[in-house]
């Protein structure tokens, strides 16, 4: 008697009444029969097959499209860059940094006439579109920032400042419409000033001009003596 | 016995909060005290609250009492600290300039009026902050305009007309008094409610 009662109790406990327990699959035929009878009559649904990779492709295409706000921002940035007449631009890799540190660093850079800007690569690609700067698109991968300056000699200060900060790394520079790689930029930064370079170039060009003049002058100076020598030798022969 | 053991309430584990080195808080000038909220904030970081209050009150002696001053305290591992006291809060300065006590309570409410000249003077004061050094004055002015918007202060390009402003302030005062009366009534009704 006691055994029987315990068995019945156990059955009660085992019964999966809660929705948290997995339902037996396949369901009991009576249940299936019941559900089939109660199923509402609906028009047959046509299931559409989605080509493999279509969703991903659509998502990628959508992410490439520009919204009105993004277009407006890119126009604003382009106009600002043209208006301010920046001469040096450094595209840098920008690593995560606390906001307070970033704010103070921006102010510090501004004191050295360097402007820090980070708009996101999508906007920057749109800004550089149809300009010689579009060749910089290759470096716009991940998180990037721009350092801009109106002074050509800022190449040195940009390198000095970025060496101090461990969360920003210059990848490529642009000076007066020319792309300068980092090796060249480091060489340029070693010069005391770029005016020296200009003076050196002018000196080399001046030397060439002076050399040509001297060469031509020598020929004209030698010509009468040569002719005299020729004339005297001819007289002796006669 | 076993049930007694099981029933014993397990002691709540106390998780020790590790505070950062920087504490940003607004303290009223000459009114730093060991009372909450400042006292516990400093105490948890292991600072001597009494000494801090004494130093802060001494440093802010040249300010009017009660002016809210944004303060940045950098706590060092040896329990010493660097105290950075900024210029009064922007909202306080703007409210003082506009002659109002409170900001907007509902959308599109205009609580005060200021001209750009007022903002320029406030920007000059704020530019002395460590955080705003080398920031262009125009940029600071733009930030102030945004704060004015959140406060409900209307910024106008031209100078304020004293007559118009007086009229506006009188109307505003009546409105604020009505709002405060309504609030007081509500509070009283709440106190009297028995159910």
From TrEMBL, chain A:
Keywords: Ribonucleoprotein, Ribosomal protein. GO terms for cellular component: ribonucleoprotein complex; ribosome. It comes from the Eukaryota. Coiled coil: none annotated. Belongs to the universal ribosomal protein uL10 family. InterPro entries: Ribosomal_uL10 (IPR001790), Ribosomal_uL10-like_sf (IPR043141), Ribosomal_uL10_bac_type (IPR047865). This is Large ribosomal subunit protein uL10m. Component of the mitochondrial ribosome large subunit (39S) which comprises a 16S rRNA and about 50 distinct proteins. Gene3D superfamilies: 3.30.70.1730. SUPFAM superfamilies: Ribosomal protein L10-like.
Automatic annotation (TrEMBL), chain B:
One of its GO terms (molecular function) is large ribosomal subunit rRNA binding. It holds the Pfam family Ribosomal_L11. GO terms for cellular component: mitochondrial large ribosomal subunit. GO terms for biological process: translation. It comes from the Eukaryota. Keywords: Ribonucleoprotein, Ribosomal protein. Gene3D superfamilies: Ribosomal protein L11, C-terminal domain, Ribosomal protein L11/L12, N-terminal domain. Belongs to the universal ribosomal protein uL11 family. Component of the mitochondrial ribosome large subunit (39S) which comprises a 16S rRNA and about 50 distinct proteins. This is Large ribosomal subunit protein uL11m.
């Amino acid at each position: 008697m006691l055994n029987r009662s315990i068995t019945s109790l156990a059955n009660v406990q085992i019964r999966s009444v809660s929705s948290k327990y997995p339902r037996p699959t396949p369901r009991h035929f009576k249940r299936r029969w019941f559900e089939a009878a109660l199923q509402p009559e609906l028009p047959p649904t046509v299931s559409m097959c989605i080509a493999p990779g279509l969703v991903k492709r659509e998502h990628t295409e959508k992410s490439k499209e520009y919204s009105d706000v993004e277009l407006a921002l890119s126009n604003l940035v382009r106009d600002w860059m043209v208006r301010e007449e920046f001469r040096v631009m450094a595209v840098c890799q920008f690593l995560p940094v606390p906001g307070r540190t970033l704010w103070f660093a921006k102010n510090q850079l501004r004191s050295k006439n360097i402007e820090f800007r980070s708009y996101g690569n999508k906007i920057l690609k749109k800004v550089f579109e149809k300009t010689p700067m579009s060749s910089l698109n290759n470096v716009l991968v991940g998180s990037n920032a721009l350092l801009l300056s109106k002074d050509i000699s800022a190449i040195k200060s940009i390198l000095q400042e970025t060496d101090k900060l461990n969360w920003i790394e210059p990848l490529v520079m642009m000076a007066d419409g020319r792309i300068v790689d980092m090796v060249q930029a480091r060489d340029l930064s070693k010069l005391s000033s770029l005016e020296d370079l200009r003076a050196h170039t002018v000196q080399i060009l001046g030397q060439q001009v002076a050399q040509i003049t001297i060469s031509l002058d020598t020929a004209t100076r030698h010509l009468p003596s040569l002719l005299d020598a020729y004339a005297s030798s001819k007289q002796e022969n006669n | 016995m076993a049930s007694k053991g099981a029933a014993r309430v397990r002691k709540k584990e106390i998780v020790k909060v590790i505070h950062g080195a920087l504490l940003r808080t607004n303290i009223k000038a000459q009114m730093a005290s060991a009372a909450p909220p400042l006292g516990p904030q400093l105490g948890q970081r292991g600072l001597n609250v009494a000494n801090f209050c004494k130093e802060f009150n001494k440093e802010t002696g040249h300010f009017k009492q009660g002016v809210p001053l944004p303060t940045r305290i950098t706590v060092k591992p040896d329990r010493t600290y660097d105290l950075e006291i900024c210029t009064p809060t922007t909202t306080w300065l703007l409210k003082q300039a506009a002659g109002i006590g409170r900001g907007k309570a509902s959308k599109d409410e205009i609580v005060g009026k200021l001209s750009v000249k007022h903002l320029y003077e406030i920007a000059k004061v704020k530019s002395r902050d460590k955080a705003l050094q080398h920031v262009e004055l125009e940029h600071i002015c733009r930030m102030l305009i945004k704060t004015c918007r959140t406060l409900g202060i209307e910024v106008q390009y031209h100078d304020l007309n004293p007559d118009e402003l007086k009229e506006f302030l009188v109307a505003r005062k009546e409105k604020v008094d009505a709002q405060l009366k309504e609030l007081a009534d509500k509070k009283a009704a709440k106190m009297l409610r028995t159910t």
